[in-house]
Amino acid sequence: MKRFSYRERDYSFGQAMLTLRTTIGLTQAGLADLLGVSRRAVGEWEAGSSYPKAHHLQHVITLAMQQQAFAAGREEEEIRAFWK
Predict the structure, then answer these.
(1) How far is the C-alpha of 31 from the C-alpha of 56, rounded, in Å?
(2) Which string of b and e fits 14-38 if b means at least 16 CB within 10 Å?
(3) Tens of pLDDT along the chain (84 residues)?
């Protein structure tokens, strides 16, 4: 009998992505359009069930830096948290 296993969700990453997206002022569809991915993909990142590719994450971080979405003086620390 074959057993199915489900990957554990990373809720902390998903919550961080959701917070960052809303701080930037984008909807899931808006972020998806900017990155060239589906809205569903963004939703899965925020649910913690999948991760963005490195270049998509880099683009999100760049947008966040342009919008000053990270706490002043803690930018590097907050960015590193996404790359763990």
Answers:
(1) 10
(2) bebbbebbeebebebeebbeebebe
(3) 555 445 667 778 899 999 999 999 999 999 999 999 999 999 999 999 999 999 999 999 999 999 999 999 999 998 888 776
Q: How far is CA 59 from the centre of its chain?
A: 10
**Closest CA relative to residue 42, chosen from 29, 58, 26, 25:** 29
pTM of the predicted model as reported, rounded to 2 decimal places: 0.83
Residue 39 resides in a domain: yes
Domain harbouring 30, CATH code: 1.10.260.40
Q: How far is it, in rounded angstroms, from Cα 37 to Cα 40?
A: 8
